[in-house]
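User: Can you predict the 3D structure for this chain?
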Amino acid sequence: MNLGIVTDELALNLPFALGAAAALGLKRLELRNTLSGRVPFFDDDTKELLEDMIDDYDFEITALSPGTFKCKLDSPQAESQMANLAKTIELAKEFEVGKIIVFAFQRSPEDTPADYEKVLDYLGQAALLGQKHGIIIAAENEMGCYNDTYENISRLHKDLANTGLKLNWDPGNYHAASGLPYKQAYEGLKEHIANVHIKDSKGQGKEHRWVALGEGEIDWQSQISDLYRDMPSVDLVIETHAWPVLGNSLKNLELVKEHIRSAKNA
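Assistant: Here is the predicted structure, written as structure tokens:
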């Protein structure tokens, strides 16, 4: 299986994060936040460093996560989202990255059924634009967004089936949104999955928190076994979220490796 990590789950300081990834033998990296800004808005020095490190250590950037559509529809940010995505696509082409992770807008109490149609329009345009440039656009399921529960994720992908939109499957976010085990949603959604985020989740509502793998309520051994059975070449990306991120990312890495070994030997 293809195992990688989000660089800022090691450190926001990109040189440190890349050095740590190299020391851990992780060649597959998902790029999101750096000290100089979130993708694609980091400075030229960061970009040059990234180019040099890719050459020196044979890294592969497997996905970019610019945070596109991680806002409300009525937010002033909404108007700039497609332009930001277009800029991210240019960066993806430059670094030969095949996937871009987006979101599906945050819900608001004032939303109407017509607003869902706007979400479809934005995400459909995004997926078609990515398809035009040979890049997969994968929407990450997220608590509080239009693709939070199984029913909402499924509906979104059914309604946009002709656009090529894929799913960045995050069992942690699914648990945080629903409190349910991953299994039912996974079986119904697996045909859409193009990328998987790995983190553990515990509790609901105000009691919810992100924890290191094995300390939460997600059966990651079973989920990784299912993924190995169904899509053995999918990218599994550690996205720890639990402070201290570096220490817990190291714990997560070892446990994921153990789960992969168990899945292969089953």
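The chain has one domain: 2-265. The chain has nine helices and twelve strands.
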